[in-house]
From TrEMBL:
Taxonomy, superkingdom: Eukaryota
Organism of origin: Crocuta crocuta (Spotted hyena)
GO BP term, pick one: regulation of gene expression
Keyword Phosphoprotein: no
Function: Plays a role in the recruitment of the exosome to pre-rRNA to mediate the 3'-5' end processing of the 5.8S rRNA.
Coiled coil: none
Nucleus among keywords: yes
GO cellular component: cytoplasm; exosome (RNase complex); nucleolus
Name assigned to this protein: Nuclear nucleic acid-binding protein C1D
GO MF entry, a single one: RNA binding
Oligomeric and partner information: Monomer and homodimer.
PANTHER family hit by this protein: NUCLEAR NUCLEIC ACID-BINDING PROTEIN C1D, SUN-COR STEROID HORMONE RECEPTOR CO-REPRESSOR
Amino acid sequence: MAGEEINEDYPVEIHEYLSTFENSIGAVDEMLKTMMSVSRNELLQKLDPLEQAKVDLVSAYTLNSMFWVYLATQGVNPKEHPVKQELERIRVYMNRVKEITDKKKAGKLDRGAASRFVKNALWEPKPKNASKVANKGKTKN
């Protein structure tokens, strides 16, 4: 877009923003084409249920985000539209999936090993009469 003439229908100050927006839309279009080239069933068969949930959530969030942008371009305040609640609902589910993923990655505690470490690490004082008991078996010559 650098070699193009600037259109007189909009202020020159926003030309760079519009160029960036156009490039971003092109990138989204390419990603959608790539994603749509594989059937959804074929894609989901290769994934475990958690990964399937991630794909569905990202897809739903992306579509709702694009609708948010569409509303903004039409002069509708998306903050006052039900799409805001939908995006928030999807975000809550994304956080749940993240928690599940983090729990899977977290280390598991071996209680038996932990109790042996603690038991062996604790200092136990010798009984006061331990030296007398040990000396009783010895005879003085």
